[in-house]
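Model the whole thing, not chain by chain.
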Amino acid sequence: MVENRPFLTFLSHLVLIAGVFVVAFPVYLAFIASTHGPTDFLSGLIPLLPGPHMIENYSTMLTEGVSTGGAPPLGTMMWNSLIMALTIAIGKIAISILSAFAIVYFRFPFRQTVFWAIFITLMLPVEVRILPTFEVVANLKMLNSYAGLTIPLIASATATFLFRQFFLTVPDELMEAARVDGAGALKFFRDILLPLSLTNIAALFVILFIYGWNQYLWPLLITTDADYYTIVMGIKRLADVTDAEPKWNLVMSATVLAMLPPVLVVIFMQRLFVKGLVETEK
Amino acid sequence: MAGIEIKNVRKTYAGGVEAIKGIDLTIPDGKLVVLVGPSGCGKSTLLRMIAGLETITDGTIEIGDKVVNKLEPAERDIAMVFQNYALYPHMSVRGNLAYGLKNRGTPKVEIAERIEEAARILEITPFLDRKPRQLSGGQRQRVAMGRAIVRQPKAFLFDEPLSNLDAKLRGHMRVEIRRLQRTFKTTAVYVTHDQLEAMTLADKLVVMNAGRIEQMGKPLDVYANPQSLFVAAFMGSPGMNLIAVGELQALGVGLPDAIPASTGTLGLRPEDVTLEAPAEPHIVIDASLDAVELVGSESLVYARAQGIEKDIVVRTPGIHPGEPGDALTLHVAHSALHCFEQTTGRKVEIQRAA
Ligand SMILES: Nc1ncnc2c1ncn2[C@@H]1O[C@H](COP(=O)(O)OP(=O)(O)O)[C@@H](O)[C@H]1O
Ligand SMILES: [Mg+2]
């Protein structure tokens, strides 16, 4: 819009600022809470300005954890979450891009059927198949293991659809030129398709990393060993103390720490795919 | 260096479309053969079978005396230039040129040498480190050519390589391609739907129609001696005037006795129709001027004759001064008449007086 009406400008800014406030204020509160001592909340009022206990709170959480909550130090949980999120993101991308490659570039019987079978998994979120999946994972003795945490969540090629759509926009002549140039199927995939998909991969990585990081129900179900707790479910355990007030200052410092990696991934990857968008001309 | 031998080749696509209905063709070593024909006649299909990008339903294709039906494109040692260039977008020009050689395990030093050489010939040296999207259409076209040249293949295959360029650049690149092919003396098959491109490039011209070869030969022979109505209409711009014999007779045009009785259509090249009477025996058609197109060096006069459906196009040098409605007398020498059979559309020879 090239309109120049001061009132409209004012109004739209007001709406935007209100929106940012609604989203950012709770985050701000969480941060403030994580800088106070344990007794500052007993009054029921949450202070609005930072307190002096920030370093103390964070180092407690990172190194010792909260024994009453049965939660290990945050470091372990963050590490577990990181492994889980990375494995899921990388695993899903690897499976999706390979299956999309097969579906688009190879002719085999029931190709369409395979595609639709994969497509249908789009409509089945983890929660729907969680009980049978738990059964399978338990029988395979994968409870309390990284494999159990990640494999069931990898095993749906949801991103296949996206890669398929992208591959369909790549001109056939590119593959033919590569064939004439002596590149077999896998070489074509590695040398041409993969570099061309980089932007898509980066975008998907962000989405899937956050998806993996934010998993709550599944880790809660299959981990009983504190060594395999992830941070998102860990926070729940921290807040879940019997016969006492939760140590909100510590819970909130855990929350802030749990938010950091997704934020970092977004910030870092954003650069990469903005770069990708500028570089590939469509 | 190798010729290409195509023997009784057919192609039926999976959907049941019979794109090539039996083609025999010899592409001599070192020559540039142009496949020309209207869109959908199967030119690309034939080229892609030579390249190995389509399977051959029936028949054999030999490159340099070796049957290649079962070989992968890379094993056929050919290079192809695509209409949309198909450059690898994420690689620099250098990377594009090097890719095929790298895959063949050519030593690094030699790759660099060949790229230098090709870039020099094609005048793309300043762009070697750019990405394809930073190049103009003409420059991309050159890179696509370069990718073929560096490979030093047995044959070049071109699929309408110039159709994405503007007219001027197309004319320029046409000359360039001719020059390069002459320099390297590499066998080349060139597909186009543009008859001018075909005429100017070809050592041997192959006119295709609906999956078959309609006529082949030296370009000027094909032009001067079209063997069927299809070729007569397709080659030349403007194309040959094709007039039903019946219409001419109804108009009272005195046709020579030598015209065979089976003739259904007479063909007159626009440049063979003259406004002044020639010395040799000729036919005379009375007409009136419909329109004039001034091209500059010559004029195209559209003449309307009573009872004849289409305007007769006359190509005459200089600027024609006539106005619409002016009476015209058209003359065509007997020797310039092309006769086509009523039933088959094939050419029938005029019986020359013994
Ligand atoms: N992959 C394909 N599958 C089915 N039919 C095809 C395919 N490619 C081309 N055809 C058909 O084969 C015929 C010849 O096509 P093509 O060789 O591309 O013609 P040209 O290059 O002369 O324009 C056309 O009728 C076209 O529709
Ligand atoms: Mg074509």
